[in-house]
Q: What sequence folds into this?
């Protein structure tokens, strides 16, 4: 069973546009971090790069779930490529 | 980091990407506009609160992302005067100030989401979600405040307690206080041994157990710290000078308790390498 140091709401994290990562202060002086991608994948554990402490991120998973649709390759185009090769 | 000298000078060092201080690794003097002496300085995660002796003015600087400077968003540096204050304290992303008349003001939204969760469906009190100083409903005369990063507030004034408190120190989630008679009490989060209290099953006084760990909400005396002359709190660990010896206890993952190990220290222990060295009782803290 994972023991969280704390539970922190996503609103309390600070977001860095460059790294697309959410940060929250860690008692060791570094910061807990979780990427936007992690949140979109339903992850809820923010880790600190300097120590063993972890925090649970409280957020609405539906708001973060990735809404992109991956288009299936068009089969007609594939047949054309094969014909030309 | 910030220090105030006996002469009232302000010294700071550390990161300055949010204007907390000069970008140096040694303490440098930091002149304040229009004021000659600093009474008290308190640091949050990325902001500082300075209580000057200029008509009790409070100066704040650095990050205002959570309203912790007490002004409207968009202002990152300011030296506006506040009210005549006697004491200031900074949490992670909020701050408090007490006035000579016994009022307490709070600003910064650092506790807002936690309060919303705990109090739901009741509304969050104004002083926990305000980005400007908001009067805190508190009874009695209060001339000093101290708070932990997570929001435990300790207020004290004349005749407020049976034991007259002389010193209050806080970590991120726990408090250590000393009374006039030299007794030391601790309370708050306990799971890293930061309270220095005995954990025997017969004496267990944990009254809250959450996924974040156990905590004690009422002050409990730590007899091993009786007569401590100096106390200092880190985020989740502590140092003290007792009987001329330096002791440490609490979180030790980064060896900050100084015993050479990585194991948390549940009760105050003398730091081994200082065992043969006694502190100079005449030196100023």
A:
């Amino acid at each position: 069973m994972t023991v969280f140091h704390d539970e922190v709401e996503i609103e309390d994290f600070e977001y860095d546009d460059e790294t697309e990562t959410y940060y929250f202060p860690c008692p060791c002086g570094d910061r807990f971090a979780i990427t936007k991608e992690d949140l979109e994948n339903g992850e809820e554990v923010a880790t600190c790069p300097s120590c063993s402490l972890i925090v649970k991120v409280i957020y609405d998973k539906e708001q973060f779930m990735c809404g992109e649709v991956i288009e299936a390759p068009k089969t007609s185009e594939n047949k054309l490529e094969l014909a030309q090769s | 980091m910030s220090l105030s000298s006996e002469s009232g000078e302000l010294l700071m060092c550390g990161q300055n990407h949010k204007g907390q201080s000069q970008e140096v690794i040694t303490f440098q003097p930091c002149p304040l506009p229009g004021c000659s002496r600093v009474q008290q300085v308190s640091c949050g995660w990325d902001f500082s609160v300075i209580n000057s002796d200029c008509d009790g003015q409070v100066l704040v600087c650095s990050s205002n992302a959570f309203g912790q400077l007490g002004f409207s968003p968009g202002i990152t540096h300011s030296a506006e005067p506040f009210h005549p204050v006697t004491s200031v304290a900074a949490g992670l992303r909020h701050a408090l100030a007490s006035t000579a008349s016994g009022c307490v003001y709070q600003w910064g939204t650092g506790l807002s989401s936690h309060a919303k969760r705990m109090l739901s469906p009741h509304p969050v009190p104004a002083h926990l979600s305000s980005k400007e100083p908001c009067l805190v409903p508190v009874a009695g005369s209060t001339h000093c405040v101290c708070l932990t990063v997570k929001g435990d507030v300790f207020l004290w004034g004349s005749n407020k307690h049976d034991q007259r408190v002389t010193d209050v120190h806080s970590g991120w989630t726990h408090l250590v206080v000393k009374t006039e008679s030299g007794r030391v009490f601790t309370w708050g989060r306990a799971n890293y041994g930061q309270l220095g209290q005995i954990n025997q099953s017969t004496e267990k006084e944990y009254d809250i157990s959450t996924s974040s760990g156990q905590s004690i909400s009422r002050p409990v005396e730590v007899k091993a710290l009786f007569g401590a002359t100096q106390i200092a709190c880190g985020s989740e660990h502590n140092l003290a000078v007792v009987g001329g010896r330096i002791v440490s206890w609490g979180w030790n993952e980064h060896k900050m308790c100084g015993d050479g190990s990585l194991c948390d220290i549940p009760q105050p222990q003398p730091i081994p390498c200082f065992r043969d060295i006694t502190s100079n009782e005449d030196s100023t803290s």
